[in-house]
UniProtKB/TrEMBL annotation:
Protein name according to UniProt: Riboflavin transporter
Subcellular location as annotated: Cell membrane
Molecular-function GO terms, alphabetical: riboflavin transmembrane transporter activity
Keyword Plastid: no
Keywords tagged on the record: Cell membrane, Membrane, Transmembrane, Transmembrane helix, Transport
Species assigned in the record: Rotaria sordida
Topology of this chain in the membrane: Multi-pass membrane protein
Length: 344
């Protein structure tokens, strides 16, 4: 049902994204906000639902879920780049008008392509649920056994090799990992996506568009790194990685607060430093997320472990987004830089 709602929401968004309604004394994009809200609801609830759903399958398939979830962010960015965004605006002489490059295809076509992609994900889910192709990966008695017992079983008929045996995770360690996951999502999806415009535009529009490509890339990359690195990270290592990501994120927050004239503004060197911090923080936070999800799936003995992990992820996003909304729209802490204007 979640995916079906997403399909219809995106399809209707392609038709009515530019329609406005007279409300509260002005024209507002009511339909746009409504359909985006439905799509956001799909994104939020699907994470919790699918994390819990993965207890039906072999633990190694969790990486497939994380890789696909992150890859879904890459496709819209690639489509946007193909559409023709990313160039510097042209400042017309003796005029306040700004000229941007014309897109190769319309916004309506863009949303219809996204609708088709969501439809493909619906077909993939039906195949995973009903087709025999997934039988070798499915755990039939997942309801009667806890997660740790499932991972301790050896099924010689499976196409996937059994996971290495681990000691069961304590409740204290589980809660500690949830706390780290909650903290990482405050920055990963609560703060950084909101302030990236203020942080990168002082260095050029090219830097800003480049920064928009980084998060979708670091997601799948973190999954690949986790598959290559066979060493299991302990809690202290996870906290250290999270601390490094927080330091680089703090730099991004600082230059966003100092916008429109942060240090090294309008310089290539400044843009490189800012992009490096964005890349490092996004990669480490995503890697921490993947590591925590895999450890809970393999070691925690309660079937609801991944469900609460997904819920914590979304609570972290909400905890970061609400304060940023207040700081931006009420207290106006962050100042945006417009194209073709002199600030510094």
């Amino acid at each position: 049902m979640e995916i079906i709602i997403g399909i219809f929401s995106c399809a209707l968004l392609s038709q009515y994204w530019n329609k406005t309604s007279w409300i509260f004394g002005g024209q507002h994009s009511v339909l746009f906000i409504f359909f985006v809200f439905l799509l956001g609801t799909l994104s939020t609830t699907s994470t919790i639902t699918y994390y819990d759903y993965m207890k039906r399958y072999n633990a190694k398939l969790l990486d497939a879920l994380l890789f696909g979830e992150n890859l879904a962010c890459v496709v819209p960015v690639i489509l946007a780049l193909i559409q023709g965004i990313g160039g510097e605006p042209i400042c017309l002489p003796n005029s306040i008008q700004i000229e941007y490059s014309q897109p190769r295809f319309s916004v309506r076509v863009y949303f219809w392509i996204l609708t088709f992609i969501i439809f493909l994900s619906f077909i993939a889910f039906l195949i995973l649920e009903w087709a025999k192709i997934a039988d070798s990966y499915r755990i039939e008695d997942y309801k009667s056994l806890n997660t740790y017992e499932l991972n301790s079983q050896t099924d010689t008929s499976s196409l996937i090799q059994s996971e290495p045996s681990f000691e069961p995770m304590s409740t204290k360690l589980y809660h500690s990992l949830l706390a780290v996951a909650y903290f990482s999502y405050i920055f990963l999806y609560g703060i950084l996506p909101i302030i990236i415009t203020y942080a990168m535009l002082p260095y050029s529009h090219t830097a800003f568009y480049t920064s928009s490509i980084i998060p979708p890339i670091t997601g799948p990359l973190s999954v690949i790194i986790n598959r290559v690195n066979k060493n299991r990270l302990g809690l202290s290592s996870i906290i250290i990685l999270c601390f490094i990501a927080t330091c680089t994120s703090t730099y991004v927050i600082i230059i966003a607060i100092l916008s429109p004239c942060p240090p090294l503004h309008d310089t290539v060197f400044g843009a490189i430093i800012a992009l490096a911090c964005v890349f490092t923080s996004q990669l480490l936070y995503n890697y921490v997320r993947v590591v925590i999800a895999n450890r809970i799936r393999q070691e925690y003995k309660c079937n609801s472990g991944l469900f609460w992990l997904g819920a914590v992820f979304r609570m972290g996003t909400l905890s970061g987004a609400i304060p940023m909304y207040v700081l931006i729209n009420i207290f106006h802490i962050f100042k945006s830089r417009e194209a073709c204007r002199s600030y510094c």
